[in-house]
Design brief:
The protein is mostly helical. The chain is 49% helix and 0% strand. The chain is built from 13 helices and no strands. The radius of gyration is 19 Å and the shape is globular. The protein starts with 5 loop residues before the first helix and ends with a helix. It binds farnesyl diphosphate and zinc ion (ZN). Farnesyl diphosphate is lined by residues 82, 130, 133-134, 178-179, 182, 217, 224, 226, 230, 300. The site of farnesyl diphosphate has 12 residues, from helix 6, helix 8 and helix 10.
Length: 313
Amino acid sequence: MGELAAERHVKYILSVEKKKDSFESVVMEHLRLNGAYWGLTTLDILGKLDTVDSDEVISWVMQCQHESGGFAGNIGHDPHILYTLSAVQVLALFNKLNILDFDKVSNYITGLQNEDGSFSGDMWGEVDTRFSYIAICCLSILHRLDMINVEKAVNYIVSCKNLDGGFGCTPGGESHAGQIFCCVGALAITGSLHHIDKDRLGWWLCERQVKSGGLNGRPEKLPDVCYSWWVLSSLIIIDRVHWINKEKLIKYILDCQDLENGGISDRPDDAVDVYHTYFGIAGLSLLEYPELKAIDPAFALPVDIVNRIFFNR
Ligand code: FPP
Ligand code: ZN
């Protein structure tokens, strides 16, 4: 089996596509706040976060904040809950949460909860269990979970549960590993895992592993490195990760590396991107691959950062 080309991946992230020479310019321009979260978390898992100019990133993140308290993907864009979580996660990575006005950000998120307990992504109102997860994860990091109706939020997520044990984006929506991560993560953070039929869901999730060792997101779909994260984190949270073949999955992820220029792709021989590089390395971290920082499966942040947030360590 090949090995993780860690140094090449660090180089790749620092100079995505080699168009520019610094992490800051490239990520900020093309990938916005989500991209910053993927790239910086990958660097942190690899123990290389200090290669980035943190002052420059933090100043840019804060300029993405809107007067409503939410964050946009880039300066001058409209705020959305997706980018708000990324902003909070990036500040957490740099131990800079203290520069945030916690109440202002929390008020923005609280204002997105609907009467039925669900969350909209922004003022335009699209509803999705992704946004329930983001709201719960973000408020929990800010120690402000009590500002929303948690019981209703949990009930809404439970209403998106299907007979196969999985979860969809809205009630009746087809089970999909990405949505399952969101629902399982949100239920874990709120201490509501008793709503999950762990054996039934574990069965559906471990059936996502295909012959090559990779995982897909739904039955009959092709494997994709990002599902190493969505499926694996869910299996770990419900304590059924021993139901998949870890060695084969490690091999699949390593087979998706660009050994020459760094980066990881969705499938062997496809073009690499920062998103799949993050999910590949985060997946390897969940699989306890040597020399990687451990990542928390519910908060999607390194475990030492989560400990600092909740236990002040
Ligand atoms: C599939 O994406 C993934 C999802 C639907 C889940 C997305 C979850 C979030 C945005 C919450 C924040 C996540 C983290 C890790 C903090 P896709 O569009 O690639 O699906 P496809 O494979 O079906 O195209
Ligand atoms: Zn993918």
